[in-house]
Structures
1.
Amino acid sequence: MTTTQPELTDRPQPRVNGSRLGSIWRHMKRDRQLLILFIPCIVFYVLFRYGPIYGLIIAFKDYSVYQGILGSEWVGLEHFRKFFDSPDFWLLFKNTFLLGLFTLLWTFPFPILFAVLLNEVRGVKFKKAVQTFSYLPTFLSVVIVSSMIIDFLSPTHGLVNQLLKAIGLEPIYFLAAPEWFRTVYIGSDIWQHMGFEAIIYLAAIASIDPTLYEAARVDGANRFHMMRYITIPSIMPTIVIMFIIKSGSMFRIGYEKVLLLYNPMTYEVADVFSTYVYRKGLLETNYSYAAAVGLFESLIALVMLLLSNLISKKAGGKGLW
């Protein structure tokens, strides 16, 4: 029996660039309303995220306001060497690393636990009320949160110290004690962001197939078993992605809350890269040196992001890319 070969014209032809561009254009035309809504986001990132990258040149120059960025003298890595030789380097590195590490270890599990437990609540009204109250602190600015912390922990009229006095204990000046600074910082961070981050995990839980729970219930599994063997494994990809993102920002500690809460008595544990950049750049007008420190901090954050993504892929096969 002889078989006939298909004609050359019957074989699938490779797509040319014209058809590919046409397909992209059709998709853009179809989703034009969504793309229009996305324009402000693009403009924001171009102006405030990618545009300022040009200014990093001053980290390698002896920047002068009068000479401008391009006119200033090129000094290469002089500011980096000066920072690495400074006695402040290791203190800043230790404080930033420990504060970022402890913040990651404590703030990351709480939203997951909160979302899993909230998902088990059967009272709809109570569940919505708890979720709403936990989400409200997200809308508070860092200044308001810091002011609340200062008032609550005041050694004279603060609520916490009033409770300590009521049970016969001596009041504690929390914000002046170095051993309490990280606890206060991390505790306030959990309170402010736990409700918002829990929404992400609740959305992931809502996408789990309900038949999995029904099958487990038929097999005799209780609610704890269903949480352990269905809920948590099902949202593990979301947990991994969130962990990678938070690991990448471990060294990117915002200066606002630290600046509002620390004082000379807590510098030894509270002074981090971002507050150091603020003092050197804005207060002492040493712009080139501050830019070099900020660039070093960004590179460390990039390394942490790449490393956490690599470890995640090696351990579980999942990552950001």
2.
Amino acid sequence: METLPTDPMHRLRAIMARLRDPVHGCPWDVEQTFASIAPYTIEEAYEVADAIERGSMEELRGELGDLLFQSVFHAQMAEDGGHFDFDDVARAIGDKMIARHPHVFGDESNAKSADQQVADWETVKAAERAAKDAGGVLDDVALGLPALMRAEKLQKRAARVGFDWPEITSVIDKIAEEARELAEARETLPQEKIAEEMGDLLFVMANLARHLKVDPETALRGANAKFVRRFAYIEQQLASRGTGPADSSLEEMDALWDAAKAEGL
């Protein structure tokens, strides 16, 4: 059997090439496609975010490796198909970073605020899209993004060409309007229309987050984590009384929720 390289990156790529070898490789790896691997790539990205959220550097090291392996996997499949290889991927992202940071790699001054650098970044990206003839303003916002994240990106893109509420008050008024429409739909309309109205309300909530400069995905992850902490507190307190949520009233659990909140959970 061929000896693997000792350099970590070369070793990883050699492992992937061997796994994909049509004769001596792993049958599962050989039969995979871009489409079949894509869900794993998304999952690994979320697991990276989860390790960061929990502050676990040991887990983050492993999850970053898993995510890197996904890039190597896709690049190997592309090389197998004669499209490009990992070096092309690395070269392309390197070129992009240099082009998008003229204040670091070029002659521009780097004496800019973070907001100005973001604005410059968006200008460069807009020029790249125009060079690729991307079509409409929203055409290249990825369909595979989580819905909440995609809503925010669609709104940001539309806002750059002037399609946006000028102030937060207008957004809040729209939320109230959508909430009323949802309440009315619940009483009179079929389930698909209720789902549509729910989507409209969530879309405007994402817009409010953008106006408040809050990342909605991060905010919702925080709310999820808070819910888990407080419900765990409810379970612990009920267990100490020899009971559990299924055997308790809503009033009991609500009181324990307030107690968890008072304790800062």
3.
Amino acid sequence: MHSIQYQKTCLAGLDAMRAESAQSYPRHTHDQYGIGVMDRGVHASASDGKEVKAGPGNLIFVNPGEVHDGRASGGTSRMWRMLYFDPALMLDAQSDVLEGVERPFDFPAAVAIDPVLQGLFNALFVHATRDSEGDGTPLDAMACEAVLLQLAAHLRQRLVPSQRIAPSGQSIRRAKERIDTDPAAALTLAALADDAGVSRYQLHRNFIRELGFAPHAYILQQRIALARRLIRSGTPLADAALAAGFYDQSHLNRWFLRVFGVSPGTYALSMG
């Protein structure tokens, strides 16, 4: 069985997903924090170069920009739920917990067992996706927000300040910032290398070493992320494809489906 459903929630910047699938996902990144729970089966992935497996009841995590893939262990279908948090939403909740202190963080592991956190995840998932009992009033969002803050407080007990190593060379930093500022721009390896003051080979090699992707693959990931944000904001699919730098809508469809497991059209309907 293959079923992947995205759902708009009562909080801006929070998306929910239910999945039952044996589909494999290629190496990719998300522009959001992701927290999930495995409900059935076993999910295997290579997260930042480390092979991990998650079984029923295990929590799974992904950081923004973290390179990972995913597949069903043994080829059998697995079932899981995810909540995806825009970084601004997650960091705002963390800042609230820390009484105004802004402290970036990464999830320290891709898989964990934590009954308390699992209970908070389940409660937040129910509140965030409630569409039968809730009536869309501010009180629904307030209840969801309250659980989010509890979850953020518990996460802070588990987390340490971000240990992720930022790109060490000014060349990578400049090239990455140029791509991130406008992923849809028509960039060439020569232009990026010239702007960074290194050779094309040095830029290509350093990108792979520091970010896990070659420059062209990193640009594609950023374009997919931009397209998702545009679609979630209500931009028509064809316009979102062109604005994100894809040749046409079919080009976006192909890559969006590989990363998210659903077509852009299906995602748009779920976010409407």
4.
Amino acid sequence: MSNLDLKPTATLCSGDASAGPTHDLLTGRTVQLGESTQVRRLLPTLGRRMVGAWCFVDHYGPDDIADEPGMQVPPHPHLGLQTVSWLHDGEVLHRDSLGSLQTIRPRELGLMTSGRAISHSEESPREHPRLLHGAQLWVALPDAHRHTAPAFEHHPELPIVDIAGLHGTVILGSVDGAASPGTTYTPLVGVDLALTESTTPRLLPLEPEFEYAALAISGSADVDGVRLEPGSLLYLGCGRRQLPLLARTDATLLLLGGEPFEEQVLMWWNFVGRSSEEIVQAREDWEKGLRFGDVHGYDGARLRAPEMPAVGLKPRGRAR
């Protein structure tokens, strides 16, 4: 997934292990993605930069694309991160510079590790389902692994957990002993929770050393007493051993968590680096056709990189 902002800002992100339990309801902003898809961008936002190693969250749909091309994101580069494709409805065709060609369907994990450099495209297939609904997420790679070789994983089957009346699909990490096959480089978790309408809260066990956030995908639910509607993200902080969940209607939530990311990382456009010099070099390499490889088969030109800010990259803190 690409950040298509023509004037992306630089963001300096880091962890905060001292944060205790909290309720911080984050409001996303609408961003145009490709030709016909709008997303709600929830991370990074003015109030919060990261949740564990999760550093980017887009939620889109449900969109009726029966008579539309759907998602059309041209080839673009990534550096220093992992991308996670997660669908509730629809299909996305992934191509990358490794030669991967994979259709990702609902509740299948598409996991791309950019490592030192990769490029990819994402599009709705020519013949596609009527609805498109899902989330695209990034995970920042720690310094020890950010220069690893690029890779792509597709996991059509993921572990399912049933805990205290909650039905969950483990996307990354582990929940109640059920571990996702997806590769991770820091302690983190991502789980898709399906809740049936109820009158009493259900308790989800948590890791107290993790910080968490809950993204409402569909329906209406109370998360630790806070009402969430689709497209809203509630940051929960650290120090919790369980999380009360009450479904006002049948609902689905995406729970993201992990150990607070202790390193500072600089995010700009589709790159996660450590310095402005590194970001400038990555942009120059992409524009010159170096290092990131080629994506074959996409019907259209690749994305051009935005211009660098005239005053240089200006770092900003994790939360403000």
